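Appendix B. Raw example, untouched.
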Amino acid sequence: MNDKTLYRLADSTAVEALVDHWVAWPHTFSPVPYSLHMLNYQKKNLTSYLQNPEIHLKSSANPKLLGGPFVNVPLDRVADIAQMLERMGGEHAESLQMAEDLIAFQNLLDREAIGQSLEVYYPQLPQSLRGFVELLYDYNNRPIVRCIESLFYKSRHYKKHLQSLRLFTQTHDRVRAYYMSTPRLPDDDSVSWQIPFAESAVDELFKLDSQPQSLGYIREVLGLDAGDEDKLIRLLTAQSARTAEPWQGPGARVRYLGHAGVLIEAAGIAVLIDPFIAVKPSQGGIDRYSFQDLPAHIDYVLITHVHHDHYVFETLLRLRHKIGCLVVPKSSGIFYADISMKLLARELGFQQVVEVDPLDSISFTGGEIVAVPFLGEHNDLPFAKSAYLVRVGNRKLLFAADSNCLDKHMYQNLCAEYGSIDTVFLGMECIGAPLSWVYGALLPKLPDHKHCQARRSNGSNAEGALQLLDAVGASRVYIYAIGREPWLQYFMALEPEDDDAYIREINKMLAVCHERGFSDARRLYGRDEIFLGQD
């Protein structure tokens, strides 16, 4: 090692985005959902852990309890969790109070407001909500407390100083604890960088994936001193960065990057959908595309919805410096859990963000992107979401993400306008989680258990998928976005089995497609490459 040696981020270096030591995702970022999630999930979980940490550790090690509310922190760090809980009560006292006030006031309106004017309730607003909300009725005379999200981002409830990045070597794909239940405590094996995500210095760090720099420069960016050099050097490599050659062939090259991530390259344009890019563990793992396999510039990144596995902070921040335009569906602005992805992106430092309604289009050389209605998969709650039709030359690809084909006529209407669609990418996790799993912490009151279980975040089953394919006239179908890659376990809480119910549905659907003579019909896994000609 000498002063002239240049370093880049090692292939196994993961960089986790955190908010106050918790994994950053939309529900721990937008101020109102974060306050509710903190009150009804994080705080309760930490309190439960302190009451019986042994049970939490035992439950965390049980594969059947993946995704449960169990804090996976060793016993020798119980005091750290106690300190964290105490600090939460101080640092976030106003936000926790606001969350309690919001729930109480919504429930008050539910009891009293039956159609009379809501003006009389403004003087009754708790101090924490004054100047931040509007009181409305829906068309059925049900009262709504509308939180003005942009104002909350300008308030004391949005704490940029608690945002940070955690750099560590990922030894294997299953090394991380479940994202929602377990905070990331500082340790000797990681580097913590306290910095608001929107800062330009974040781009300087992530340019190290392809642009090596001196150790001194890297230390300066991270604000480290020479004493941290041994820890830092383990995260770097002096090996040359690989250069990802852009696709210059005829037609389109389509690369499957894992889960819902797909990269389309055609005629010098790169379009990336729902990226969740994995690093390469130091102890090996299944083959995959990683950050060095991506083009130097990505013209468009398309986000289908705000679920944590599609709007992935860790990946979006790492790619921000090479993304031309981030495309997101438009939220209603009415319901506080219907997070504005545009506002969120702005706070993540994205400069060019385009918000789309259904059938909005974006033209590019040799093609276009069309926002497509997306039904289902959100427990019957109102959320911004969009599938995308991408046309490259005379090829049309539908990226349906987790769409549930609840009404085939919608796709028939789509094709009446745009013609048949030859290639479909579709998620078929048709079991899904109950309403309470992710959204329980955000609701003023939960429906009864029976209704919670019936309202699932599920995609299409075999019957629905075949109806969709028939409606659009597809000849190719690729099943994706079902969370089976091993690097997704900490995020998706899935322990895949060959006979999972949704796998049986997928196999049933693919068998029918093969009988019908589809050009291609398969389930994607790990990494894949598809070439689409112009004929």
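End of appendix B.
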